[in-house]
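As a warm-up, study this chain.
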Amino acid sequence: MAKSNNRGAERLARHLIRHEAGEGTPEGLPPASRVCERLRVPLGSLMGTTGYSALLARAQVLARARKPVSEAEADVEIVAQLLGLLITFIGRALTLRLLQDTWPEMKDLALED
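Now compare it with the structure written out below.
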């Protein structure tokens, strides 16, 4: 799989997806979609629904450009790109804070280089 620009974002994306997979999938949403859906509320508050939709659309375009070979890899790449864009726009510290607020049950969230 092609690597995202930020390996820490990719590791964190995998971690969040695994966590959501362990939580079950209400409403039939795949784990990666659940990650994006959980981020929609705080990011929508920050940048509005249109801003969040634009950010997610950009993450999808960037992920497709990396040509992942499987659906699972594509899911990780989309979440990693979304996290990478957040890191670019609001910084590592604020991104991590937003993730910790969104997943307070996950005590081991970290953004590594």
